[in-house]
Write a structure and sequence with these properties.
The protein is α/β, with parallel strands linked by helices. Helices cover 36% and strands 28% of the residues. It contains 6 helices and 8 strands; from the N terminus they run αβαβαβαβααββββ. The longest helix is centred in the last third of the chain and has 18 residues, at 109-126.
Length: 176
Amino acid sequence: MDFFLDPREKETVNLVFYESSVTKIKFVSELISSYKVPIFYIDFDLMFSGYYESGLISKIPDIRIFRPDRNNLLEIISEIIKKTSLDTSIIILDSLNNLYSILNDEPNSGRLVNSLLMFLSYNAKFSKSKVFIASLSEKKENEWVLFPTKRHILEIENMNRFYIEEKSEKLQIQKL
């Protein structure tokens, strides 16, 4: 986790690929406990919320969890952009797969998702914030795609890419 805390690290957006939701939760739990700035957690799949509310993840004082749906998504994104525009913070979007699912019926949903991500990352850059985007993914023909939809993942220039997995009950983080 030291890499994410390194003040010399200039990249704002961190794309985190995983194949196991439990591994993702362990990663996120370690990540949020390592920062001392406000954390905005956008929980599309509600897994983190469940673990957090049940006490399986230690409570931290400066986290705000959002549970968006189709009706309140843009309002939540707007609120987060306002709150993160001036102060350094962490934004965790969990998960890209479920963001696409929420917007699946919208015309040009892929463009809308990409625009939201670009807007979040652009805003975060000015406040020296970090954005973590988790996605249940697999590598197909040398490209990362969302599982199971096989939708291609937007890769922004100057974006960190990580693959997390668990081996012998230890979290392994590989920078791609």
